[in-house]
Amino acid sequence: MASGGDLTLTILGFLSERPMHGYELKARLAALTGHLRPISDGALYPAIARLESKGLVERHEEAGTHAARRQVLTITPEGRQELLGRLRDPSDLDISDQTRFFALLTFLSALPGGQEQAEVLRRRLAFLEAPASFFYERGKPVRIQDEPDPYRRGMLQIARASSRAEKEWLRQRIEELDARG
């Protein structure tokens, strides 16, 4: 979660759910994707400071549980608008990169309109349905059994199973959202 775009999205997303202090926010971020992209204090706290300087996040002091005061972060109305904008119109990288897309998906319910949510899901589905150069050769999918390297075969098998499951879920969720109008 080292890149600025998805870190901003996840900070704003978690703070939209409720105010929290930096340590708690860091724990929530680590629980989301820390096993894939660990977040360091050297990345988190400067990102929070940038969001504060842009007026997207505010910091205030509260009494701590053991008499020590602590800094609590709260999303501002401008921060909420920034979050909704990022959710409504995610970058191509947010759609194509699985970890970034899953971060986006974590907060997609914050969008008030089901059709706005469905549109984001349609973009991801279109990306997944487009031929990928590694999995295709001369415009045709590489057959798993034709790949001589066992690790590449394994990667293809895992990627295709994951892609099938994700596409099935996307289609189902889009259908549900469309049915609600």
Describe the model:
The strands form two sheets. The protein has a three-stranded antiparallel β-sheet. The chain has a two-stranded antiparallel ribbon with strand order 4-5. The protein contains eight helices and five strands. It is mainly alpha-helical. The protein has helices at residues 4-17, 22-33, 41-53, 77-88, 92-96, 98-107, 114-129, 150-180, and strands spanning 20-21, 57-63, 69-75, 136-137, 140-141. Helices cover 62% and strands 11% of the residues. It has two domains: 4-87, Winged helix-like DNA-binding domain superfamily/Winged helix DNA-binding domain (Arc Repressor Mutant, subunit A, Orthogonal Bundle), CATH 1.10.10.10; 114-180. Helix 1 crosses helix 3 (41-53), helix 1 packs across helix 4 (77-88) and helix 7 (114-129) packs antiparallel against helix 8 (150-180). The chain starts with a helix and ends with a helix.
Number of strands: 5
Q: Strands across the major sheet, in which order?
A: 1-3-2
Please work out how many helical segments DSSP would assign. 8
Which class of the largest domain in CATH terms?
Mainly Alpha
CATH architecture of the largest domain: Orthogonal Bundle
Gyration radius (Cα, Å) is 20 Å
Integer average pLDDT: 88
Low-confidence stretches: none
Sketch the topology as an H/E string, one letter per element. Answer: HEHHEEHHHHEEH
- Helix and strand composition category: mainly alpha
- Oligomeric category: single chain
By CATH's scheme, which homologous superfamily of the largest domain applies?
Winged helix-like DNA-binding domain superfamily/Winged helix DNA-binding domain
Proportion of residues in β-strands? 5-15%
**Which shape, going by the Cα principal axes?**
globular
What's the story with the biggest beta sheet?
3 strands, antiparallel
CATH T-level topology of the largest domain: Arc Repressor Mutant, subunit A
Distance between the termini: 34 Å
**How many domains, as an integer?**
2
* Residues in helices, as a percent range: 55-70%
